[in-house]
Design goal:
about 65% helix, disordered C terminus, 8 helices, about 230 residues, mainly alpha
Length: about 230
């Protein structure tokens, strides 16, 4: 009787293990299908623009039915939102890596350079994140929350720079202006109006922003001084 119970338990364990393996295999296949569709969407939007960005076109490029696209993303704008969130997640990883590797005195410059490199290497993501190429897309509250994480990386870096005496002022205010500066520079470069050939990566201390960036006239006298007009009274 005991032997039969052990045999039954062994069979049940084997069946349970088989179900677990099947579940993992199905999950991997599902993740792969979603990734394939998302990659196809990014390629179509990047290469052919919003006019060619349709669910049918994405499905054809991904080798699936339109039903597969709707199952995973719900709609065309659901696809755009997935690109938006994926972009900010990847962007955040790049900025966090730069933040972790930088010396205290170089932190803001290194973040600026990392911002630019990521944007140039991921221009379709960047456009969805900041330029709204699909006119009727509006990010959800979840997507907006994902985007704010990257800004907080810069705020944290500014706070660290302020604590070390490199900048003076309210970290959120300074971060907003630094973000605006590098975003404007990168947007110009993506439009073909950026650095001359052979120039170095721009960062927050790049000559393109003044020498140093924090003393550039575009930012008022200097963000090292309290009361800078660019930031209001601080």
């Amino acid at each position: 009787m005991g032997g039969k119970s052990r045999a039954t338990a062994t069979i049940v364990d084997a069946e349970t293990a088989a179900v677990a393996v099947d579940a993992r295999t199905t999950r991997r296949a599902s993740d792969s299908a979603r990734t394939t569709i998302l990659t196809a969407a990014i390629q179509i939007l990047g290469r052919h623009g919003a006019g060619a960005f349709t669910v049918r076109a994405v499905a054809a490029a991904a080798g699936c039915s339109t039903t597969g696209v709707y199952t995973w993303f719900g709609s065309k704008n659901g696809l755009v939102e997935a690109i938006y969130i994926d972009g900010f997640e990847r962007f955040g990883i790049a900025l966090s890596a730069a933040e972790s590797a930088a010396a205290p005195g170089e932190l803001l410059n290194d973040l600026g350079a990392a911002y630019r490199r990521w944007a140039l290497a991921n221009s379709t993501h960047y456009a969805v994140m900041f330029s709204n190429p699909v006119a009727d897309f509006r990010p959800s509250a979840q997507a907006c929350a994902a985007s704010l994480v990257t800004f907080e990386t810069l705020v944290r870096a500014v706070a660290a720079a302020a604590a070390a005496g490199f900048v003076v002022g309210e970290p959120h205010h300074i971060a907003q202006h630094l973000w605006a500066g590098i975003h404007g520079y990168v947007s110009l470069e993506l439009a073909g109006m950026g650095l001359a050939d052979g120039a170095s990566d721009p960062a927050f201390g790049d000559p393109a922003f003044g020498d140093p960036a924090f003393g550039d006239p575009a930012f008022g006298d200097t963000v090292f001084q309290r009361g800078n007009p660019a930031f209001g009274d601080t």
